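Methods — Computational structure assignment.
A single polypeptide chain was analysed. Its primary sequence is given first, followed by the predicted tertiary structure written as C-alpha cells.
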Amino acid sequence: MPTTDAAAPPSPFWLASEHCDLQDFIATVSLCTALADYPHASAVEENILVYDCDRVRALAGNPVALRALQAEWGQALMDGPGVIVLQRAVADMDTLEQVSGVFRALIAEQHASGQAAGDHFAKAGANDRIWNVQQKLCLRAPEAFARYYANPVFAWIAEAWLGPAYQMTAQVNVVNPGGVAQAPHRDYHLGFQSAASCAAYPAPVHQMSALLTLQGAVAHCDMPLASGPTLYLPGSQRYRAGFLAWQQRPFRDYFARHCVQLPLSKGDAVFFNPALFHAAGHNRSPDIRRMANLLQVSSPFGRAMEALDRKAMSAALYPTLQALRAQGALNDAGVRHAVAACAEGYAFPSNLDRDQPIGGMAPPTQQQIMHAALAQDWPAARFLDALDSHAWRQQA
C-alpha cells in the first residue's frame, strides 16, 4: 500500500538552497588542470586549457584525429576546467572586421533611435547589446555571415557538446570603458531562474540544463586584462547544486577571491559549459570598447513534437476557467493545472528587442499573463489584447 506519510523525498533528487555547502564547493573546484590529460592542447593557463587553432584546423583532413579532439573538448567542458580558450579561432580577419563594422552600425542605429537595449546583468544603456544579431547579420550582410560562420572551429566545438542539428544564436555585447563587472552566475536555462524556481526542478534537470546549451564568445577586439575579459572559476560547473549556490553571498565572495581571467586577442574565442561560474570583468581601460559576439548554441532536442497554437487555446480556455472558478467547480490548484496544459510556460525563444528582460532575467510567459488575468478577473477582451501584445513581442 502506498504511504501517505509526509516524509521528505531523498535529498539527492530535490536540491534546495540549504544543500549548498561552501566547503563541498571548494573541494569540487580545487582542481589542477594537467596538460598531459589533454594531448591536443598547447598550454594550461590559470587552470584553463588553451588550444592553438592553427594546429586544430590542420586536423580537418583526419576524421579520426578530429573525433579525438572533439572528445577531448567535451571531456574538458564536462569534467575538466569547464572552459577552453581557442587562440586564432577566426583566421579570416578581413571578414571579422567586416562583421564588426555591421555590429557598430547596428549599435549606432540603436543610439540614433533613442533605444537602450536592456541587459540581463547591466543597467539599460550602460553598455551596448544587440539582441538576435544572428538574424540581423544574416539579413544585412549575408556574404559576411556565410564567411564568418563557415568557420569549422565553431562547428566542431558545437558538435562536440551538442552533436549535429545544433541551433546557433548570438548576441553582441560591448562593455564600454568604466563598465562594471557582472555578478558571478550560471547561464541559460536554469541560470535564468530564481532560486525558488530552480528548487522546483528535480536534480536531474539541473544536470540536464547544462547539456542543452554551449556558451561561447568571439573576441572582436584585443582584450587585455584592463578591459575586463570574462572571469571564470574553473571546475565550478561540476558542483551539483550550483544553480542555487551562485545566488548565495558566500559563493559569490569565494568567486571574487579565486576567479581567473585571461587576456584575449582579436579573433580568439572562448567556449564554456553554461554551468560554469563566470562573470564579465570590470573594464578599467580608458578607451577600449570591449566587443564580443556571444554565441549561445542550443541542442535541437528542446522542442515538442507537435506545433500547437497556444495563443488560440488560451483565448478559448480563459472564459471557461473564469466561469468554473466562479462556480466553485475548480479550485486554484485545478486552475493552475489547466493553465499549464494550455498556455506556454517558458519565456523563450523571444524577440528580446521587443520583449526585453528589464526587471528580471526573463520576460513574462503566456502562463504568467493568464494567471494574472484570472487573479484580477480581467474581461476577456483585455486578456485577448494581452495575448496579442505578447505574441507581437515574441515575433522575429
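Note: The chain has 15 helices and ten strands.
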